[in-house]
Amino acid sequence: MTTPRSTTAPWEYRDPLEAALAPEVSAKTLMEHVRTIGAWERESGSPGEAQAFDYIERTLKSYGVEVERREIEAYISLPLDGRVRLDDGTVIEGLTHSFSASAEGLEAEVVDVGDARPEDLRRAAGKIALIRGLASPGRAWAAQQAGVLGQIHVLMDHLHNMIVTTIWGTPAPETAWRIPATPCLSILGADGERLRGLLARGPLRVRMTTRVRTGWTPIPHLVGELHGQREDRFVLFSGHVDSWHHGAMDNGTANATMLEVARLLAGRRDALRRSIRFAFWSGHSHGRYAGSAWYADHAWRELHQRCVLHLNVDSTGARGATDYSTLHATEDAQRFAEAVVGDVTGQRSRARRFSRAGDQSFWGAGVPSAFMSLSGLPKQDTELSRAMERLVGSAGFPWWWHTKDDTIDKIDADVLVLDTKVYLASALRWLNAPVLPLEHGRAAQSLLAELTALQAAAAERFDLSPAVDAARVLTERLERVASAIARVDPSAPTGQIEAINRGLMRLSRLLVPLGYTSGDRFTHDLALPIPPLAGLQRARELTKLDPDSDDNKFARAALVRERNRAVHAFDSAISAADDLLERS
Predict the structure, then answer these.
(1) Would you give the end-to-end CA distance of the chain in angstroms?
(2) What number is the average pLDDT over the span 251-267?
(3) Cβ contacts of residue 311 below 8 Å, gap of 6+?
(4) Contact between 304 and 366 (Cβ < 8 Å)
(5) Distance of CA 316 to the CA centre of its chain
(6) CB 318 within 8 A of CB 402
(7) If pLDDT is split at 50, 70 and 90, which confidence band does 412 have?
(8) Which residues are registered as beta bridge partners of 278?
(9) Would you say 307 and 362 are in contact if contact means Cβ atoms under 8 Å apart?
(10) Residue 136, CA distances (Å) to 73, 84, 133, 151, 445 in order
(11) Angle between helices 413-432 and 334-345 (to 10 degrees)
């Protein structure tokens, strides 16, 4: 007699424990964690942060979670103060930023460069640029490269703490030259209008002061683990502890979410198929993801071989955050992410490509990722929303983000409970689904669309057809794989399930780096936007070059190499897909 096959795809899997554990998510316990952690100011390497780590360690151990805590050294930058002094003695208090250069009284003429377009920045060479909007890494770097002496960023109603280095994690010899060398601070919109009013009357000189403490700092690093019973693979569930000021929402609530999921899973550890690691980072806010980057470097092999998913949590439970319509996931985890959010919240979500933000330090190892921020405020037309949409692909950030006003009164216990239920269900599904909830069709389709656009941009100047053809074959193959895997019986022999999961992970190891890195899987790309197939992007510029020029011929040589990289990855993925079809 033939065993009936499941008609539920792995990414639609619901774990039986969800119904039992979801009602046990405790608003009281969650808020106790937030109040405790949010009572300390938690700059990277500070005594307050150490106390928060002590609390997290004690709590995990009380649940029976195995804990490994260590101290690592990181390159940390702590802003102290910043101000602008006018000729009449008026002082405008501002906010300097992590990795800004320090300056004791830089005197120079001010030039209003608006939104900092390249041509406007060039006008500010040798002067102080007055820039509209958040002090983002890309904008600060562009200003420095244009030769400005200092940067004054003008916000509207609130000053948001920022980090302006483009270097991800600890600098290497190849990136250390990018450590910012110009002073940078932010002022309120009203103060910016005052400066613009003075500029309208004629040339304006100001005296700019910034003080920032940057250097090597010991920071805490903690990973707790609940061991699975059947597979030697794990989910990495991570969030940062360091924060700006008291950081109740960013990131005390996320720490509470992790602790509550740990409590509930610890009580059912015997039912866990795979392991889960709870990673609490420092160096997120003041070291450009130094903690997660360190872990990616030092655990690369086991992450590559054994990690099925990086589940990231940031800023849960915000007051008014009722919108789940937008979420982030690598393409191989997007169908899962949409399904779990829909099942738990009842809202229809659309997953989108990750921006280069958060503690997403594991793409070089080929690890799929789901979530960063989750619930958001409903769509709003504010300067902060527009800026965050550009920076991280999500507009639902509240006004108190990265300010001293991120305090316990900004937390809604009901929203925090719902967010935590999403993470609990997510963890359970990845821990216990017999077949991993990975589906790679969107990744192949996205890469094929990018290649098609690149070929159109390059026109007859470069032939991308080998990569386009390989991507088309892969797309077709993965459609068949998805259909076949959706029919796999979860009670199939262990050897078959293991072979399928191994093949699904192999596909992620090939396609995630192709879509999310510039090519070197063992370094960290800059904290700047990275398009898919990054190495082939110069194909867009060929038509602007003289065909007989060195620049054109150098570019074509590089493109041949990058085309080889892409074709090799596609061919390898086709082979993996064929193996999956044989085993499904």
Answers:
(1) 19
(2) 98
(3) 235, 236, 237, 238, 369, 370, 371, 423, 426, 427, 430
(4) yes
(5) 15
(6) no
(7) very high
(8) 224, 237
(9) yes
(10) 25, 20, 9, 11, 31
(11) 130
pLDDT at 388 over 50: yes
Q: Give the Cα separation of 159 and 178 in Å (integer).
A: 25
- Provide the angle, in degrees to the nearest 10, between the axes of the packed helices 494-516 and 441-458: 30
| Listed residue (562, 63, 511, 39) closest to 276, CA to CA | 63
Contact (CB, 8 A) for 30 and 408:
no
Question: Are 312 and 367 contacting, i.e. CB atoms less than 8 angstroms apart?
Answer: no
Q: Which two tokens stand for residue 228?
A: 């699975």
Q: pLDDT digit string (tens) for 33-73?
A: 999 999 999 999 999 999 999 999 999 999 999 999 999 99
Distance, in Å, from the CA atom of 330 to the CA atom of 530, rounded to the nearest integer, reads 13
User: In a 3-state reduction of DSSP, which class is residue 505?
Assistant: helix
What is the rounded CA–CA span in Å between residue 94 and residue 74? 27
Longest distance between any two alpha carbons in the chain, whole Å: 93
Q: Are 282 and 291 in contact (CB under 8 A)?
A: yes
The model's pTM is: 0.95
Segment 69-121, tens digit of pLDDT: 999 999 999 999 999 999 999 999 999 999 999 999 999 999 999 999 999 99
Helix (H, G, I), strand (E, B) or coil at 2: coil
Pairing of strands 128-132, 150-154: parallel
DSSP state of 225: E
Q: What is the DSSP string of 376-412?
A: BPPP---HHHHHHHHHHS-----TTTTSTT--GGGB-
User: Both tokens of residue 452?
Assistant: 């098609």
Contacts of 542 (CB under 8 A, 6+ apart): 457, 458, 459, 461, 462, 552, 555, 556
User: What is the enclosing helix (H) or strand (E) of 216?
Assistant: strand 205-226
- Give which of 315, 317, 339, 313 is closest to 236, Cα–Cα: 313
ω into 251 cis (within 30 of 0): yes
Strand partners, 71: 220
Tens of pLDDT, residue by residue over 132-177, are 999 999 999 999 999 999 999 999 899 999 999 999 999 999 999 9
CB 319 within 8 A of CB 415: yes
| Residue pair 533/451 in contact by the 8 Å Cβ criterion | yes
β-pair partners for 417: none
